[in-house]
Amino acid sequence: MIGNVLSGVSNFISVLSNRVKNRIYYLSKLKVVSLETQQPLQGNMLLSYRIEPFLLKPGEPVPNDQSWNWECLLIAQTFLDLGYNVDVIQFHNDKFVPQKNYDFFIDIRDRLETLSPLLNEDCVKILHVDIAHMMFRNVAECRRLLELQQRKGVTLRPQRYEVPNLGIEYADCATVLGNDFTIGTFKYANKPMYPIPISSSYTYPWHDDKDFEVVRKRFIWIGSGALVLKGLDLVLDAFAQMPEYHLTVCGPISSNKPFEEVFYKELYQTPNIHTYGWIDLSSPDFMEIAKNSLGLVYPSACEGQAGAVITCLQAGLIPIISYESGANVHDFGAILKNSSIEEIKATVKGISSLPVEELKMMAHKAWEYARANHTKEKFAEAYRNAVMQIIQKYGKKKQADNLGASQKELSHRLASM
Prior knowledge:
Helices cover 43% and strands 15% of the residues. The protein is built from 17 helices and 13 strands. It has a 7-stranded mixed sheet with strand order 1-3-2-4-5-6-7. Strands 10-9-8-11-12-13 form a 6-stranded parallel sheet, sandwiched between helices. Helix 2 (68-82) packs across helix 15 (376-393) and helix 2 (68-82) packs across helix 16. The longest helix has 27 residues, at 2-28.
């Protein structure tokens, strides 16, 4: 009896403690971080993105697990170098009320809609697009779930459903992390859009000793949550029907129990499918898996620009991806037309059967392309160019001239991140 009471008290304290921690975490995200420019003052910019990197202690390294950690820092630094003081808020901060005039307001989600009526009329409003339009993504995920239901006789719930916001409709223009696919989901609003290549959290050395004959039938799928949206179910079904081809699955499988239960046989009892689970992309394990694999199979139904794809390009893997992955493969990979199981099987077999020298050339081109287009430096350069175009379009060319003069200093700052 006493044991039950003590256990109940312990559970209550644990629940209360978690609620207090969650409340403290929530309140910490309601802060406003104000940064002052060291250049002649041109005005003010408000950035609604992620506030965590701006709360780091002096000398504390910027985390490398998500590219947004440094991308939001670089956005702020771009405007600081232009001569703007920058205020930063968390993108879900629904308590913030502007207390000053802003020349620019940049947002990634819902604040454009809520804050636009409170901003000065001449404020240039920019939506920073990091995902495809929510309406498209919601429909794409539900369509995949319906197809799975019809194929397997089981209903799984959406993992990435998000209420569509009207940010693009309130924005004057948008910067877009993605390619033509991503831009296309926002085109209905008829706003100017400036594409920015997503940066990669990691780069890897080229392995000239990789044996492409040995690895020609070995592939990986890697992704985060929303496993059906990202096509893991299709890839598992495809490889389960190709016992001579091997698949390594890297992702948070165990955190999605309903999916894991439906595909338990494929994940854990199919000899040619090896489920690693969540993996640290900076780890020797990932580099070893990449070195012993030919390519990535990633038939996602919707992305902004898939970080998993860019990471695998950096690792020299040949991409077999959907158009909706938001990444370009040029002549070093394959774009799936409909991401059906039969098409996945045919494409995997087709690429696997290519001559060794051609496989090596494609993998090296993928690696070179990622190095040339998806780095912190490339993101900074592309974002800077987009800002210069926006400023010129809205009649503030002198700030663009100031930004060009600070390029060398920004490059030095990037090298220390």
